[in-house]
Amino acid sequence: MRSLSVVSIESPAGLSTHGCGAGDEPLLLRACRGEHVERVPVWFMRQAGRSLPEYRDVRKRADLFEICRTPELAAEVTLQPVRRLDVDAAILFSDITLPLAAAGIDLKIVAGVGPVIAEPIRSAADLRRLRPFDPDRDAPYVAETVRIAVAELDRPLIGFAGGPFTLASYLIEGGPSKTHARTRQMMYGEPLLWRRLLDALADIAIASLRSQITAGAQAVQIFDSWVGVLDPDSYRDFVLPSARRIFNGIADLGVPRIHFGVGTGELLPLLAAAGADVVGVDWRVPLERARARLGAEIALQGNLDPALCLAPWEVLAERVTAVLDRGGNTGHIFNLGHGVPPETSPDALRRIVEHVREHGASRQATADAEWDALGV
Amino acid sequence: MRSLSVVSIESPAGLSTHGCGAGDEPLLLRACRGEHVERVPVWFMRQAGRSLPEYRDVRKRADLFEICRTPELAAEVTLQPVRRLDVDAAILFSDITLPLAAAGIDLKIVAGVGPVIAEPIRSAADLRRLRPFDPDRDAPYVAETVRIAVAELDRPLIGFAGGPFTLASYLIEGGPSKTHARTRQMMYGEPLLWRRLLDALADIAIASLRSQITAGAQAVQIFDSWVGVLDPDSYRDFVLPSARRIFNGIADLGVPRIHFGVGTGELLPLLAAAGADVVGVDWRVPLERARARLGAEIALQGNLDPALCLAPWEVLAERVTAVLDRGGNTGHIFNLGHGVPPETSPDALRRIVEHVREHGASRQATADAEWDALGV
Fold it and tell me: pLDDT tens digits for B162-181?
């Protein structure tokens, strides 16, 4: 394992200000709040993990949950993409199902499959197996990971939790599902049991996020990755109340809150209504459409098609530019529309970061000049 | 196997006119053309197949491709849902990958997995293994199935073909894929090879559809089921030309053309632009939004969440009504937003059909009365 060391600020385009000098708030946080920024910040979902050789080295000696439960390892893996890619934020290395395992669920991550639950939750009796989650008692290693990483970082660390639909789906199906059929069967057929399950999951998320924020996370993201399987009526009736519970449950801590799910084009206004400051946008939705659906008050995060990470650089560069152009000058955080594909070359990610910096800054300079020319 | 027999027209609500009397065109075809209809027609994607016990009986004695290649069996299975459910159309029982197997690809349907291709297509050399498809020579059983079924039917039979992206994905990935990563890698990285593959697949679809129409199919549907993984720019640049090739290639035959894919909310106008008369709408998109994106000239097909087939009847009935209300009085064909889940009770499907008939007709009567009251 590489030793921990202070992350150096490299400046590929002479522009790498993460905004920690001169009393400024970090760039990412200002962008989350929709403030005028000198350039669009950039980070990647799943930037830590399978696409980095230094992660695969760590992974040879420990499995996913062992890494998550060993603060030195988890912090190391959290910092790896910041070192290598110079992204504008770190994101905690962990897994959305980890708090479930810590709250009494017999859960394994099976390579090539995903989370597998030994005894799925399908009744009120089953629900009793999901204990209340106390981060200090059940998963102290998470906050410790945050503390170690934050001490090493000169830019924000994003904490996260799984969204209620996605975690419920794993618990009910017993693992990943293409159709989420049993999940929706409970949702439509046993709405009271469903609501109890989702509120219990919301409370787990709240406890986990509060602990991460207290330990130093400066922004948080709710990954309700699979909620895009629902139509808007179903989301509003069966998930939004529990999502809102999460956002309300951390509102007093004042950190920007990002809300993301795949395939959620029709749900964007509801993801915002849950209480988000930033909505993560799937690659299927051109950002100007997302903006039209969400209004100017909500910041957007996204949304390059992850598959483009595997495309030739000329194609990739053109599409990065298009995402920047569509995202506009403020209220945009560059990211992929979902996680980094495992086969991605780290060089491609590094070039994306540089391209966002260069293109984002030159475009911003033009916009500022035009603004000045107006004499306002 | 049950013997073939003329399908009886049962009238659960006294309204079961499939429009074959009095020189009328069948209800389904008039609805496809956006004409004023006495009620909204209804059929179900995957209405023939796994959810019907009489299909499972046939399946005990023959596998999927054996059924498809035996006209008497395939016609029987095509007719089963018409007998049991009294839907307004039959759809040919076949599989979108069948013409690929007939055109030289070593392809199996593996239970619980889907189509599995022994040697995926990943290069120009591989592409040579995909021969031109001559339905009369390579798959005469398909047209024969259509002829047998049509002779027994008093309502339209819908023919179909796989869309170019979806078939390309199976061929490139070697089977079903969650991410379609290799597929998009070829699409972005080798656009000329990609275009040759998709045009070859379009030509297979054209040949297959022309043969089905000549044999008696009165409408056709292109299932580009997985194309919703693309953003609109990518669809427009990399798939639309080949989709348009298919629609143009059957335009002279004058049958209504339906275009469907899952998760295509952002692609709806492009699915129409390919040349469709009807666009199938995924359950995620409320029909009034689909209507706003598509305009009044295109008919809509859909879009009940298939998962609702497993919900209690009260919940299901309410959502069927909502789909009808959102679909409006003309230019709407009731269907699910994707295929019937295998666990669905045929009784639930039968009740949906009856509900659509009753609700659709009473709503239409109200609309007609209001229209008359206007004195126009």
Answer: 999 999 999 999 999 988 99
